[in-house]
C-alpha cells in the first residue's frame, strides 16, 4: 500500500494499525448528514474495504448538512457523488456502491456476503434502521447506530453509549421500544445527544421512505455524529487482535 498520504496517521497508530485498517471491511448504510461524513473519515483513516449504501439523490435541502450536497450535485445519486470523493481520497480503496433503499431481504443478502468487521447504521427512518440492527446482531457483526441529530445544536452533548443508556432522544426511544418486543434491550453502541430536542423545529411529511416527520438541523451536528461513529469503528479496528 502506498502509505505516503497516511504518514501522519502511521505516526499515531503505527504500521500495525495501518495494516489492520487496510484489511478491514466496513459497511456504511445511509449517506446523509451523518453517513457521508462517517464514510469520509473512514476513508481518510485508511480503511481498505468499504461498502456504501443509499438509494437517494441529492436534494437542494441537503446542502445545509450533507457532504455530497452542492448546488452542482443536486439531482445526482448520493452513492455516486460520495464514491467519487472517497476514491479521490484513496484510489486503492476497494469500494462497493449499492444505489438502493434496502428492504429486509437485501440487508440479509448484503450482510451474508460482505464479511464485514463493522456496520455503521446511518439510516434516519425507524423501520429500516431496526431491520439493519436486528440483521447485524443476528449475525454477531458489530454495529454502531446513529440516533436523532435533528432539533439539536449543542455538540458537547453528543456521545457514544449502549442503546440502553440513551436518553432525551425520540428516535432512540422508538428504537428501544420496538427492540424490546424482539427481546433486545442492549448490546450495541449508539451515537446520540442527550440535549432536549427543540420541538418547535418539527415538520410533518407525507410519509415517503418511512419518514413521517423530521426536525430542523444545523450544519455541524450530523457531522459530529458521523465523526463519533467513525472514531468508534476506527479505534476498535486498530485495537483488535
Q: What are the salient characteristics of this protein?
A:
241 residues; globular; seven-stranded mixed beta sheet; alpha/beta
Return Rg in Å: 17 Å
Summed up, the helix count is 7
Biggest sheet features: 7 strands, mixed
As for the number of domains, it is 1
Which stretches are poorly predicted, pLDDT < 50 over at least 5 residues?
none
> N-to-C terminal Cα separation, in Å?
21 Å
- Order of H and E elements: HEHEHEHEHEEHEEEH
Tally of DSSP β-strands: 9
Helix content bin: 25-40%
Instruction: Give the averaged pLDDT, no decimals.
Output: 94
Describe the structure.
The structure is a single chain. α1 (7-23) crosses α7 (220-239), α2 runs parallel beside α7 and α4 (104-114) packs parallel to α5 (126-138). The protein is built from seven helices and nine strands; from the N terminus they run αβαβαβαβαββαβββα. The chain is 39% helix and 16% strand. It has one domain (6-238). It has helices spanning 7-23, 35-45, 78-89, 104-114, 126-138, 170-180, 220-239; strands at residues 25-29, 49-53, 94-98, 118-121, 143-146, 158-162, 189-193, 202-204, 213-215. The longest helix has 20 residues, at 220-239. The radius of gyration is 17 Å and the shape is globular. By secondary structure, the protein is an alpha/beta fold. Strands 3-2-1-4-5-7-6 form a seven-stranded mixed beta sheet, sandwiched between helices. Strands 8-9 form a two-stranded antiparallel sheet.
Amino acid at each position: 500500500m502506498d502509505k505516503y498520504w497516511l504518514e501522519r496517521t502511521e505516526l499515531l497508530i503505527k504500521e500495525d494499525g495501518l495494516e489492520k485498517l487496510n484489511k478491514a471491511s466496513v459497511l456504511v448504510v445511509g449517506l446523509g448528514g451523518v453517513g457521508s461524513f462517517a464514510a469520509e473519515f473512514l476513508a481518510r483513516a485508511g480503511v481498505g474495504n468499504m461498502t456504501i449504501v443509499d438509494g437517494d439523490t441529492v436534494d437542494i435541502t441537503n446542502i445545509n448538512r450533507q457532504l455530497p450536497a452542492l448546488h452542482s450535485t443536486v439531482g445526482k445519486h448520493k452513492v455516486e457523488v460520495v464514491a467519487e470523493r472517497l476514491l479521490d481520497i484513496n484510489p486503492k480503496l476497494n469500494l462497493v456502491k449499492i444505489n438502493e433503499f434496502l428492504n429486509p431481504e437485501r440487508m440479509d443478502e448484503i450482510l451474508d456476503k460482505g464479511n464485514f468487521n463493522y456496520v455503521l447504521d446511518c439510516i434516519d427512518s425507524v423501520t429500516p434502521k431496526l431491520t439493519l440492527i436486528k440483521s447485524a446482531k443476528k449475525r454477531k457483526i458489530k454495529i454502531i447506530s446513529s440516533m436523532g441529530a435533528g432539533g439539536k445544536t449543542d455538540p458537547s452533548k453528543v456521545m457514544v453509549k449502549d442503546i440502553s443508556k440513551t436518553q432525551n432522544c425520540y428516535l432512540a426511544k422508538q428504537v428501544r421500544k420496538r427492540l424490546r418486543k424482539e427481546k433486545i434491550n442492549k448490546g450495541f453502541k449508539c451515537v446520540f445527544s442527550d440535549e432536549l430536542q427543540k420541538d418547535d423545529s418539527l415538520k410533518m411529511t407525507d410519509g415517503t421512505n418511512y419518514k413521517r416527520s423530521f426536525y430542523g438541523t444545523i450544519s455541524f451536528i450530523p457531522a459530529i455524529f458521523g465523526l463519533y461513529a467513525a472514531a468508534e469503528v476506527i479505534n476498535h479496528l486498530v485495537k483488535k487482535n
